[in-house]
Design goal:
Blueprint lengths: L3 E6 L5 H18 L3 E5 L8 H7 L1 H8 L4 E3 L2 E7 L9 E7 L3 H8 L3 E9 L3 H10 L2 E2 L6
Helix pairs in contact: 2-3
Length: 142
Amino acid sequence: MMLDRYFIDAKGGNTEPHKQAFQLALVQAKLKKTNITLVVPTKDRLSVGIIRDLVGGGSSKQLAKGNIINYSGIEIRPASERTLKHDDINGVIFALWLGESGLERVDACSNAQAIVAVHWALGAVLEWASKHNATDLSWSKS
């Protein structure tokens, strides 16, 4: 099975690229009839404002507690880079703010069907994106 890979540069706290990437993750999950695993560097990042903007306040609190949520008919599971278990991950991975080593760990999940990566510093994902021929979702390139 081919693993689809996408990335976008969020340029600081701009929420629009996050929303665009999240919508792609939802579309991929619906097309592939699977779930989404939201992977962040550390568990405390599950309750930041951008995630509240994406899934809503109550849902972001549930994710921060380690609970699975249902968003538009898609199951979303929380994970941190530290707690990531390759065998437990399947479906679409929505990777927020991971560096290259974190992205490589995510990429090693054998049951993943797609990866959508978002980072504030594009340099952190470029080597991974180049190595795996990931599709750039950025609207404009500097």
